[in-house]
User: Which sequence fits this backbone?
């Protein structure tokens, strides 16, 4: 059931019902502009990843700042974006199942859509869905560039799958999907540099083989918030698929720059607003945001703007805070929490509450929340 919006425009931030997903609009807009400005001197396009935000409203804002389209991981996410007016969508993932492929092919009536494959059986199924829908569907070959997850081996194996796609009357070869997810959270800058240099070489080698066989590679996509400038500088990638940059989270905040400092070019814009529901013990406070309110797969959240106060434990509906040299939060106090991982935290909510200058400015629906199929 759709949750009741926790706020209305004009409210003070301390009047928002909690737990709530709060978006600092000044920081959010600065992140959009920063990504645009960083990529502008390069030859790469931004195809921002909507698995982070799950919102056609935010997708439209990204495209107004130079993105050429969106990535998604699920057909349901693609549907929400297409229905929301996004014209160019890549499912940067494999889609298996006739029903899902039929839904994807149907979207070709209102948007440019594409999908990835790493197996001949997936290619055959995509061709059947495209034939039934009367369209030609773009299919990218996903190659494993070090993530060890999905993807066919780079080089001759990838080229063979590309030839199979290009030979179909109902498909067209869209290029290479070459995302190195494991590199995004390598802490040291030199580790990330080494990983992406190897990924770029895998792409380069595969592209050379494809060209020898008469196949162009319209898209070479990958890159995330932790590495996107490395892919952009590689001379190989032409599309960047960063998503978390619009929000940031505590885990990305732990990445080190070349000087060894925790410093990212983007600002923290996404927070879970929580209320202190108990302060019965000295030096301890309990907020109304636990496992159901904030994802902890990448670590516990941080307490924003409260030096010496740490979020030390979560249960279903409770988050335990301890004052470690700072003043303990008081009963009824509202606190901003920085999620450890923004993507799954967003998926817990139906609404973004956009705040500027301490006031609610907008409430945006998270239309693709829960789209797992």
Assistant:
């Amino acid at each position: 059931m759709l949750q009741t919006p926790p706020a209305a425009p004009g409210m003070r931030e301390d009047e928002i019902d909690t737990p709530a997903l709060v978006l600092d609009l000044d920081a959010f807009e600065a992140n959009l502009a920063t990504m645009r400005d960083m990529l502008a001197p390069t030859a790469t396009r931004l195809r921002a990843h909507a698995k982070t935000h799950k919102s056609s409203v935010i997708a439209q804002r990204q495209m107004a700042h130079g993105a050429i389209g969106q990535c998604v991981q699920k057909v349901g996410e693609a549907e929400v974006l297409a229905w929301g007016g996004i014209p160019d969508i890549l499912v940067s993932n494999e889609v298996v199942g006739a029903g899902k492929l039929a839904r994807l092919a149907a979207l070709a009536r209102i948007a440019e859509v594409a999908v990835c494959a790493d197996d001949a059986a997936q290619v055959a199924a995509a061709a059947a869905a495209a034939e039934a829908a009367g369209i030609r569907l773009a299919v990218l070959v996903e190659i494993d560039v070090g993530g060890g997850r999905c993807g066919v081996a780079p080089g001759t194996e990838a080229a063979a799958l590309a030839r199979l796609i290009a030979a179909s009357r109902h498909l067209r070869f869209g290029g290479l999907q070459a995302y190195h997810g494991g590199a995004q959270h390598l802490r040291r800058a030199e580790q990330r540099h080494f990983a992406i240099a190897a990924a770029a070489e895998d792409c380069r080698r595969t592209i050379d083989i494809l060209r020898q066989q008469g196949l162009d590679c319209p898209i070479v996509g990958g890159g995330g918030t932790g590495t996107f400038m490395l892919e952009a500088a590689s001379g190989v990638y032409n599309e960047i698929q960063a998503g978390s940059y619009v929000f940031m989270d505590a885990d990305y905040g732990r990445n080190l720059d070349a000087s060894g400092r925790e410093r990212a070019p983007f600002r923290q814009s996404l927070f879970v607003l929580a209320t202190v529901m108990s302060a019965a013990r000295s030096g301890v406070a309990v907020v109304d945001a636990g496992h159901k309110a904030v994802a902890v797969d990448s670590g516990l959240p941080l307490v924003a703007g409260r030096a010496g106060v740490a979020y030390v434990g979560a249960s279903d509906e409770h988050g335990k805070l301890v004052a470690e040299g700072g003043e303990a939060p008081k009963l009824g106090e509202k606190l901003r929490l920085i999620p450890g991982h923004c993507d799954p935290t967003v998926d817990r909510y139906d609404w973004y509450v956009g705040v500027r200058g301490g006031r609610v400015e907008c409430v945006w629906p998270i239309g693709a929340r829960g789209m797992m199929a």
Summary: The longest helix spans residues 189-212. The mean pLDDT is 97.
